[in-house]
Amino acid sequence: MIPVTTLKDRNVALFGLGGSGLATAQALVEGGAKVIAWDDNPDSVAKAASAGIVTGDLRKLDWSGIAAFVLSPGVPLTHPKPHWSVDLARAAGVEIIGDVELFVRERRAHAPDCPFIAITGTNGKSTTTALIAHILKASGLDTQLGGNIGTAVLTLDPPKAGRFYVVECSSYQIDLAPTIDPTAGILLNLTPDHLDRHGTMQHYADIKERLVAGSDTAIVAVDDSFTTMIADRVERAGTKVVRISRRQPVAEGLYAEGTHIRLAHGGGTRELVDLSPIQTLRGSHNAQNAAAAIAACLAVGVSEEHIRAGLTSFPGLKHRMQPVGRKNQVVFVNDSKATNAEAAAPALSSYERIYWIAGGLPKEGGIASLSGFFPKIAKAYLIGEAAAAFAATLGASVPYEISGTLERAVGHAASDAERDGAGPVAVLLSPACASFDQYKNFEVRGDAFVGHVAALPGVTMLIETNG
């Protein structure tokens, strides 16, 4: 845990006592702050109280003596309207911050030179974050991984010289981190997302820009108009900018030429790495992720040799285009995190011949938007509530069966793929659906897929399994 010493002996109000909120409250108390915390969920309040956190309804609080208001990122700050606790804090003139802001203040106070890499963007954040942390760890460096990727940032080990932090940041977290100042800040892309929480695309982009604007080195992918303008603006303001692209060469920075990542510098270019042998980094979206990771690791002093070794050994992000098993020419891929059509597109684009397992609890729009990938699909195996609707969309374009269950789909897809004589093929779980009709969440669904693959005769597992 990182004790929040920068608010020692100060009165702090906190709202939101979910996982990260409770961890934040505990970190504040550990650092000596006088915390009063609340949540709209009575169960969360009771859990915090049982953990020794002082709780109390913030509507009854005397805000005049409060030094800071710490808000959990899931609570609305501006849109669709501010939460009532935000209104109270603003009326009292109390600053509103989140756990990432507390982290950056602790880093500045205790180890301002320890490297801090922050990653944001609409898509690709988690893969890029995991890849950077893997490269650093594989290089023998003391590496702390957290943030939006699933580990609350204040539960990491405290800042000290030589300790590297890799933190995934959502727009909600950046909105609550006004002084975020990474050693290397990454902005991967911007497409419309979370507009219910940010109001407009411009406001969403402005929030994302803060992360790279405060960085020592800003690493910006310039493959969309918003990020291109942000790179130019941040550079004009005096920040060092490294541009990356998966679509076109850049004058200075890194870009993808097919599976080759090239470094452009001083009017010349040279190849840094060829991603084609790395199964966990297939697809142009992963070329962008890899370029960003390389740029960040170079910015914090990692050698090219160590970077190449780390890329090669990257096991992939669990449940996201994760090769989990192999039998002869068949690779089994767990992409359970693809819970809608847009999320399934990268995996479908990354393999040339696919035995596709899809379905679950359907999302609006179905899979019609994926029709451009249908020629790659040798056969589809449809499961869950969406099976009938997906069958209607596939129609005569793609052979399919309604398998019903994931276990049956894996068995049938594996048998058909083994008989395929067309060369390398993928049995791909990329459901384009939520899991809730059959599984608690996409993680449980992905683990079930791995278990069914492991039970197939003759399959060599590429990951560790529990039994």
TrEMBL record:
What is the first-listed, main subcellular location in coarse terms? Answer: cytoplasm
InterPro entries recorded: Folylpolyglutamate_synth_CS, Mur-like_cat_sf, Mur_ligase_C, Mur_ligase_C_dom_sf, Mur_ligase_cen, MurD
Q: What class of enzyme is it?
A: ligase
Reaction(s) this enzyme catalyzes, per UniProt: UDP-N-acetyl-alpha-D-muramoyl-L-alanine + D-glutamate + ATP = UDP-N-acetyl-alpha-D-muramoyl-L-alanyl-D-glutamate + ADP + phosphate + H(+)
Q: Give binding positions for ATP.
A: G121, T122, N123, G124, K125, S126, T127
E.C. no: 6.3.2.9
The secretion signal range is none
Q: Name one Pfam family in it.
A: Mur_ligase_C
Which residue ranges does UniProt annotate as crossing the membrane?
none
- Name all Mur ligase central domain ranges: 119-297
**This protein's UniProt keywords:** ATP-binding, Cell cycle, Cell division, Cell shape, Cell wall biogenesis/degradation, Cytoplasm, Ligase, Nucleotide-binding, Peptidoglycan synthesis
State a single Gene Ontology molecular function. UDP-N-acetylmuramoylalanine-D-glutamate ligase activity
The listed locations are:
Cytoplasm
Pathway entry: Cell wall biogenesis; peptidoglycan biosynthesis
Provide the Mur ligase C-terminal domain boundaries: 319-431
Coiled-coil annotation: which residues? none
Summary of the function given for this chain in its UniProt record: Cell wall formation. Catalyzes the addition of glutamate to the nucleotide precursor UDP-N-acetylmuramoyl-L-alanine (UMA).
NCBIfam families documented for this protein:
murD
Protein family: Belongs to the MurCDEF family.
What PANTHER family does the annotation carry? UDP-N-ACETYLMURAMOYLALANINE--D-GLUTAMATE LIGASE
Q: What is this protein called?
A: UDP-N-acetylmuramoylalanine--D-glutamate ligase
Q: Which gene encodes it?
A: murD
